[in-house]
UniProtKB/TrEMBL annotation:
Pfam family, one: ADH_N
Catalytic activity: a primary alcohol + NAD(+) = an aldehyde + NADH + H(+); a secondary alcohol + NAD(+) = a ketone + NADH + H(+)
Cofactor: Zn(2+)
Originating organism: Cannabis sativa (Hemp)
Gene Ontology terms describing biological process: formaldehyde catabolic process
Family indicated by similarity: Belongs to the zinc-containing alcohol dehydrogenase family. Class-III subfamily.
Enzyme class: oxidoreductase
Gene Ontology, cellular component aspect: cytosol
UniProt name for this protein: alcohol dehydrogenase
All copies of domain Alcohol dehydrogenase-like N-terminal, residue ranges: 38-168
Keyword entries, A-Z: Metal-binding, NAD, Oxidoreductase, Zinc
């Protein structure tokens, strides 16, 4: 049992990796984690996996980048104590935190058409979603800011109940944590957002971990052809593990555009295209690579603030294609994460192949180095191992 009379309702002193300055190594310090407020849960983090979004906001010098902050948002943990009015979980439950809320009460959460909660909309906030305040302070009593409603680079953290999904404790934590963000986003984009059909053709722009997760989702949906586009030819061999059947080197198209190459390969365009890099120009290329009449382009990559996608209005009207974005792959965390975990235990969903490195908490900065160097897909950070 995680909770006890020694800690329940009281602050916990523990270690956290703090981003004190943008782009500088995280500093492991002792901090205080306040007890949960009503509808909040304090959890002990078992492990986290490092996501590219952590690196992006670690480097960011202007708001919504902010310091000092506890980063981390892909994780799995155990409930230590619960605040008032929490009935969904109890002390000792295994849980996955997510950046996307799923309150189960608003119009959107009740609808099958959306996963965008209205009560607690997604934002890159330095606070808890319900009260706009922090649960972290350093030993001087100064506030430490939250990240994506999770902040998992701490031995203990506080998460709103709308951002927690209860899972089975039988699934290895260094696999279940992957469904807290990246793998769920990619698989969900193919499965829920695009609704990829069996026998279809899929093109994925960018074979990082999100793009490979899209490939995995498309494979599970029965896509006949999965074309990966990247400037690194080594990604093709890696992509084959997740169902990629063809490869296009984006740096080696000669005098043709990417969309011209793909249109020729697919005899008129792909059924589904996914932009997983975060470049407005690639969104345009992906849209141009889709088949007229029914082609869908799903945007998953995050471009810099202020970037604009420009599409000819003539093409929008006359080609009948669809362009849409997807947060968390269109998944509803509380209902869809358990489905994906079951598919993993049934040996359908590949998760093992995403974990390329594992480090101890004290070596967390090594995880950042590995991801920045392009040496890994997912590096799991163990809090106590």
């Amino acid at each position: 049992m995680e909770g006890s009379t020694q800690t329940t309702g009281k602050p916990i002193r523990c270690k956290a990796a703090i981003c004190r300055e943008p782009g500088q190594p995280l500093v492991i310090e002792e901090i205080f984690v306040a007890p949960p407020m009503p509808r909040e849960v304090r959890i002990r983090i078992i492990c986290s996996s490092l996501c590219q979004s952590d690196v992006t906001f670690w480097k960011m010098k202007e708001f919504p980048g902010i310091c000092p902050r506890i980063l981390g948002h892909e994780a799995v943990g155990v409930v230590e104590s619960v605040g008032e009015d929490v009935n969904e979980v109890v002390e000792g439950d295994r849980v996955i935190p997510t950046f996307l809320s799923d309150c189960g009460e608003c119009f959107d959460c009740k609808s099958k058409k959306s996963n965008l909660c209205s009560n607690f909309p997604f934002k890159v906030s330095p606070w808890m979603p319900r009260y706009e305040s922090t649960r972290f302070t350093d030993l001087k009593g100064d506030p430490l800011y939250h990240f994506l409603f999770v902040s998992s680079f701490s031995e203990y953290t506080v998460v709103d109940i709308s951002n927690l999904t209860k899972i089975s404790s039988e699934i290895p934590p260094n696999r279940s944590c992957l469904l807290s963000c990246g793998v769920s986003t990619g698989v969900g984009a193919a499965w829920r957002t695009a609704e990829v059909e069996a026998g279809s053709t899929v093109v994925i722009f960018g074979l990082g971990s999100i793009g490979l997760a899209v490939a995995e989702g498309a494979r599970l949906c029965g896509a006949a052809r999965i074309i990966g586009v990247d400037v690194n030819p080594d990604k093709f061999e890696l992509g084959k593990k997740f169902g990629v059947t063809d490869f296009v080197n984006g740096a080696n198209c000669g005098d043709k555009s990417l969309s011209q190459v793909i249109m020729k390969m697919t005899d008129g365009g792909a059924d589904y295209c996914f932009e997983c890099v975060g470049l407005a120009s690639l969104v345009q290329e992906a849209y141009a690579s889709c088949r007229k009449g029914w082609g869908k382009t799903v945007v998953l990559g995050v471009d810099k603030p202020g970037s604009e996608v420009r599409l000819p209005s003539f093409d929008i009207l006359h080609t009948g294609k669809c362009l849409l974005g997807a947060l968390f792959g269109g998944l509803k965390p509380k209902s869809d994460i358990p489905i994906l975990l079951k598919r993993y235990t049934d040996k359908e969903l590949h998760l093992d192949e995403f974990v390329t490195h594992e480090v101890k908490f004290e070596d967390i900065n090594k995880a950042f180095d590995l991801l920045i160097e392009g040496s890994c897909l997912r590096c799991v950070i163990w809090m106590d191992k």
